Amino acid sequence: MDIFKKKRKEFPKMVVLYLSSELNKILVAPQYVDESWIRFEQEEIEILNFDCSNELLGDTIKRNFDKFARKNMEDKKRTSKDWPAYQASKLKSMKEFEKKYDRITVNGANEANIIMTFEADMKLNSEINLTSSVSAFADNEKLGSLTKELNKIQNSKKFE
Known about the structure:
This protein has 160 residues and is of the alpha+beta class. The protein is 26% helix and 28% strand. Strands 1, 2, 3, 4, 5, 6, 7 and 8 form an eight-stranded mixed sheet that branches. β2 (25-33) and β3 form a beta hairpin. α1 crosses α4 (140-156). The longest helix has 17 residues, at 140-156. The model has no long low-confidence stretch (mean pLDDT 84).
């Protein structure tokens, strides 16, 4: 049965943030979901300065979270180098991209998408990540502040 024909009205939304204080960039990558529930980045990546205001960051997160959409992936043979965020970074290798950028994934907690769950990839061998939840209706300042606090913890690696 095609998931697009199911009665389900919504999917948990998703946007991925890539943060690099070294490069002074935040890449904001809204996501698609295809018929097999595979999520992939949309073509348009928004780029902010790392030191942007919490208000601007929160507004950008909400706007890109709401861009989440259903779309069939045209080229199923894509490689990691085809990822729009990697291309937007203008770095020479995926290894360099993964070294210079921290990833925070923002998901809807369920189909209602009224709770946003932020998951900071700690890049630990133990696969421990840091998660925090907040109302999708929280003000932009709070969303931006939460993102920056999670990124500070990512960089301190206090879990090691």
